[in-house]
Amino acid sequence: SRDRGDLGTLVEETSHLLCLAQHARWELPVSRLALELQAEVDRYVHARQHGGDPFRHFQRFHWAPGLPPEARDRYRAAQHRGERYCRGLARRFPRQGDTPGLYRELRHFYRVSPLSKLAIAAA
Q1: pTM of the entire structure?
Q2: pLDDT for the residue numbered 113
């Protein structure tokens, strides 16, 4: 796959794994959309904390050839909501010194139900 050398892809796939494991531990359902949304946020945070452009992946992406329409809609919705939420994070926590507040909000976002997560990201 062309994504094998992409650190963002590794972050995204790790996010999926950890999110699934945590929801199983909490005995909570999780949707594919919520998994993708969490991965978008995790990619943003990783890039931000490691000096990359945290919004790059929102602008530079390519749809996989042959992606079914329902999957494309899910990815598009996760990307749109993820970017909206992350831009809000960037406004509320613009400096590196804001990291404790940023992490508090991210922990809250991670722990809410999938429906609440989607609602927070859509606001």
Answers
A1: 0.88
A2: 87
